[in-house]
Amino acid sequence: MKGLALFVCSCSLAAAQAPAATPPGIPDLPDQTVIAVFDDGGKLTVGEFKNIYAVLPPNAQQGAIRDRKAFLEQWGLFRKLAAVAEQKKLDQSSPTREALEYNRLFLLSQAAVNDQVMNTVPEPEAVDKYYASNKERYKQVKVKAIYITFSKEPVSKSVGGKPLLSEEEAKAKIRKLLGEIRAGADFVKLARENSEDEASRDKDGDFATLRPTDNIPDAIKSAVFALKQGEVSEPVEQPNGFYLLRAEETGYRAPADVRGEMIENIKQERFRQWMQQMHDSVKVQFPSAEFMGGASGK
Questions:
Q1: Is residue 12 domain-shared with residue 75, that is, in the same domain?
Q2: I need a surface site. Which of 111, 134, 157, 175 has the fewest CB within 10 A?
């Protein structure tokens, strides 16, 4: 989707379209305060300066704040040189004419994109519908765990007074524990006595409250979110150990807690649809095959 590249380019302009704040280091004066009067009688106010400042590159912003007098003098010089260029009709001659047109189209394209992004406000009904359609995205599971480590290399050392198990020994142990749990043994008691994840073991096996968007291994994510409350997973293998995972509590984040996230997701989806429609609506003919040559039509 070629057109979506515009969104990436538009970030600075989006910031500029927000209400201009007083730049750091500048006195907080009323916007109508005149701060420069030029030799042609033109004036520059604090409000106009804020708007100019907002679209400057970061290094130019720093210079404008650091030496305000020099910046305003330079602005006056720009005005004078631009007036000379217009008097000589340089804005109507190549390559200035084409450069102006390119920049005009580019900036207006950015403005259109930012207007679409910033002024899209999802209706409450749309947010409610989004939550209902994407409820699983907001699922959360409070998990308890038992973790048994293993080593894939022959070792004679021990950790915490216990010998390191081989992968097969660890698998046999974790399956034995699972059998005991399914026969009615207390998961918490077994976690305190056997788990080698100290952080969770010291909290009666409390591992974490997990959400589908968390950055966790796929094997753990798949196991956890397949569990019903109170269920224990099959052993989940990780590079250095096996987990038994129990869904202590399952539920969903409240709509109010994820409202901002949902609104942003809806806005982004509507923007993508709008941008795709705009892109698809562009129809260009290429009457000169010789000019196009072997140029890609992608």
A1: yes
A2: 157
